[in-house]
Amino acid sequence: MSSNETAYLDLLKHVLENGIKKEDRTGTGTLSTFGYQMRFNLQENFPLITTKRIPFRLISSELIWFIKGDTNIKFLLEHNNNIWNEWAFKKWIESSEYTGPDMTNFGLRSQQDEQFNRLYEEQIDLFKSRILNDADFSRKYGELGNVYGKQWREWKTSNGNTIDQLKEVIDSIKKNPDSRRLIVSAWSPEDIPNMALPPCHTLFQFYVADNKLSCQLYQRSADIFLGIPFNIASYALLTHMIAHECGLEVGEFIHTLGDAHIYLNHIDQIKTQLSREPKQMPTLHLNKNITSIFDFEVSDIEIQDYNPHPTIKAPVAV
C-alpha cells in the first residue's frame, strides 16, 4: 500500500474515531477535529486516491481555471466541469430576476425529495445552458466574485494596483530559491463578503532543497470525503507544474488542515471506502514542450495507469 494513500485513509479514520459533532452553515452537521497534517511524497507517485475514483479531468481543468485568474464558471462548463455550479446557481435563484419554482435550500431538499430533485435538475440544466449561450447572463450570474484565481493573479492593493502573486512566486523560486517568502494567499478579508464561497485552501508556501520543490498548503475548512482528495491532487499537480517550469524535481506536498470535518451524510460512504484495499497510485505526465504554467491546457496534462475502485457518490453541502 502506498504511504500517500495511507496518509489520507488515516485522516478518515482519525475523524471518524475522534471527531466532535458540530453544526455548520449548511445545516447538515459534521464530525469535526481541529488541526491535522498529512505528508505526500511526490517522488513516490502521484497522490490520486484509488479507494474510490477521483475524476482527474475536473481537477486539472479547475486548476487551469485558477491559474488563468478566471472567476466565471463558463470556462468550467465548457470543459464539462460542474463542481462550482451550485454556488453560482444559488446566486441566480436568490436574485430578483429569478421567477422559477422555489429552490430554497436546494442542496438538502434535492437529497430528500425525489420530485423536487427532478425539478432542481431541470432548473440547473436551464441555468447552465444560459451561462454557456447568453453572454450577458453569464457575466452577471456565472461570476463567483474574487475567488481563488483572482487572488492568485490580481490581488488588490490599497493604492489601486494589483499583484500577480503566482507569477511573482515562480520568479522568486527561479531567482531566490532559498527565500522563506515563497507564499501565495487567497484569503483577502476585504473580498470575503463578495465571494460565492470564501477560500477553503487559503495559503500555500513553496520550499526548495536538494533541487526539489515542495509545497505546503494551509486549508481552513476541509470536507474530508468530497473535497480533500481533490485538494491533494490539485496542489500536487500545481507543484509538478511549477517544478517543471523552474527546472526542479518534485519533493513533498504537505497538507495542513484547520477544521477537518466529515459531513454526517457521508459516514456510510466513508465506511465503504475504508473497507476497500488501496491500489497502485498513478503517474503524471506533463507536455514537455510547455515551458510556462500559464500556457498549459487540459490536453497537456495526463494521468497514466490509474485503475481505482468505483466512484462513491455523496451529496455536496452548499
UniProtKB/TrEMBL annotation:
What does the record give as the function of this protein? Catalyzes the reductive methylation of 2'-deoxyuridine-5'-monophosphate (dUMP) to 2'-deoxythymidine-5'-monophosphate (dTMP) while utilizing 5,10-methylenetetrahydrofolate (mTHF) as the methyl donor and reductant in the reaction, yielding dihydrofolate (DHF) as a by-product. This enzymatic reaction provides an intracellular de novo source of dTMP, an essential precursor for DNA biosynthesis.
Name the InterPro entries on file.
Thymidate_synth/dCMP_Mease, Thymidate_synth/dCMP_Mease_dom, Thymidate_synth/dCMP_Mease_sf, Thymidylate_synthase
Q: Which PANTHER family match?
A: THYMIDYLATE SYNTHASE (PTHR11548:SF9), THYMIDYLATE SYNTHASE 1 (PTHR11548)
Q: Partners and quaternary state? A: Homodimer.
Query: According to the entry, what is the taxonomic lineage of the organism?
Result: Bacteria, Bacillati, Bacillota, Bacilli, Bacillales
Keywords per UniProt:
Cytoplasm, Methyltransferase, Nucleotide biosynthesis, Transferase
Which species does this protein come from?
A: Paenibacillus abyssi
**SUPFAM superfamilies, from UniProt?**
Thymidylate synthase/dCMP hydroxymethylase (SSF55831)
**EC no.?**
2.1.1.45
Gene it is expressed from:
thyA
**NCBIfam families with a match to the protein in the record:** PRK01827.1-2 (NF002496), thym_sym (TIGR03284)
Active site annotated at which positions?
Answer: C200
Q: Which amino acid positions bind (6R)-5,10-methylene-5,6,7,8-tetrahydrofolate, per UniProt?
A: D223, A317
Compartments reported by the entry = Cytoplasm
Protein's UniProt name: Thymidylate synthase
